[in-house]
Amino acid sequence: MGINRVRLAGKDWPPAAPEFRKLCQPLPEELGLPTLASAWKEANEFAGQPSHHGWSHRAVFLAGHTTGWYELRNAGTTEECREVKRKFGAAYQTLVNRECQGLPLEDQLAIEHQFDPSVYSNQLQRATMKDQGIDPLDSQGARTKLKGMF
After folding, report:
1. How far apart, in whole angstroms, are the C-alpha atoms of residue 40 and residue 113?
2. Which pLDDT tens digit goes with each residue over 27-54?
3. Which pTM was predicted?
4. How far from 143 is each of 124, 131, 147, CA to CA, in Å?
5. Cβ-based neighbour number of residue 148 at 10 Å
6. For residues 45 and 25, is the Cβ–Cβ distance under 8 A?
7. DSSP SS3 for 47
């Protein structure tokens, strides 16, 4: 991709390493994604209510999420804006690269087993009471049975 771009642009060979690296990165519009400039504009416009906006592409939303909606809304100084824009650009390019490689934009999360000790403890207690012949719903009967044991 980078070599073709150098050839088509008629640039000197070999280009500087940072320039060639940039030429090797896929452009969002080549993959059907918005350009970085339009993605940046959209993320800034709708950072206030990201869940209520119909995003042009999931990658724009994810790049904004990675950058931080708060940071997008509240960057005040020129330096803060530059840093937030750099962070957004890096996140967006990562997503563009994933799209180019045919990978899903988001990692699939496994469903984890949620172990709740209190639920297990209650189940164990009911099983023990059943083994002892105690009805868990009959507290008076359980009390009487316990008194009889002593």
Report:
1. 38
2. 777 778 899 999 999 999 999 989 888 9
3. 0.59
4. 19, 16, 6
5. 7
6. no
7. coil
